[in-house]
Amino acid sequence: MALFSVGVNNGLLVRFAAYTGLRAGELTGLRVRDLNLAAGHVEVRQTLARIGGVWKISTPKSARSSRNVPLVDRALVKDLRAYLVAHPNSGDPEALLWPGRVSGSHLVAFDRVLDTGSVLRNYLRPAVEAEGLPQMRLHDLRHTFASLMLAAGFPPYEVSRWLGHAYLATTDSIYAHLYPSDYSAHVDRFSAFVAEAR
Length: 198
Known about the structure:
This is Integrase. By secondary structure, the protein is an alpha+beta fold.
């Protein structure tokens, strides 16, 4: 059983969640093969959730939830590459990507399932509190991803697809307040289009 201190992987996991927008069950269900660094994306194909005390594999939430999410941060890709080199089961494509916490300790093991609630309680909330920031949920990292992508200028329909929303309207209803309000680039582009058509 490969063990690491709790902080070794949780910082990377939190960055990964904030830069991919995956749901908790999607993070838990990721296998080594789902991290396609050569193609520059993560493949969301299954979820893993505890139901009645038993971990169960399921399909993602909706048809659009089975998706490829781009890995847009080069530093994250570099760190994921190093993480895979150190992953004791990297040669097994079906192995879970993220380790789970050993009950009653601050150690993690790759033969255990990632418990995102434990990551939240034992890592994320204390880290956020230490920085004097307001409390957050793991799901807030999903909102972080969407907000960052929209602020970086990615079209809402792409962000919606990457989030795995069944409908663009879902993304629009949650994030419309983040859409650009400076329309000068649109005015310039339309004016050039009309001028060229004349």
